[in-house]
Amino acid sequence: MGVRPPQQDGDDEVETIAFGIAALDEHLERSDITFPTTEPALLDRLGDPDVPYDAKGNEVALSAALAETHAEEFETRQQLMNALHPVFEAKRERANNSIVGQLRSLLPF
Fold it and tell me: Which helix or strand (DSSP H or E) is residue 3 part of?
């Protein structure tokens, strides 16, 4: 997923903030991962990056997200994305429903 940040005067370039599987896709684009792949091979190639799971910048380590999928091998890129999507969505929902998340939504920054 991705969202556009608030518009600022004088900035003609449109910028988006990627999170969830869109943010992971950016990491995959920069590496030369081939499928099928395993969780250890994926982490070895990517270096266990922190992946933002919401537009506020909350992050989760890729290794932690992969552990929640309970899968060791991914036959295709789409299978990897399909396995991780519910993990990122659950984290995003929990962050928004937490007391800290609710307080953050009230603040203008």
Answer: strand 2-3
Rounded to the nearest 10 degrees, how much is the dihedral formed by the CA atoms of 76, 17, 101, 58? 60
Instruction: Give me the phi and psi of 73, to 5 degrees please.
Output: -135, 145
Q: What is the pLDDT of residues 31-61, one digit of tens each?
A: 989 999 999 999 999 999 999 998 888 999 9
Q: Residue 3: inside a domain, yes or no?
A: no
Find the domain containing 82 and state its range.
Answer: 35-102
Residue 19 located in a structural domain: no
* Number of domains, the chain: 1
Predicted TM-score of the model (pTM): 0.73
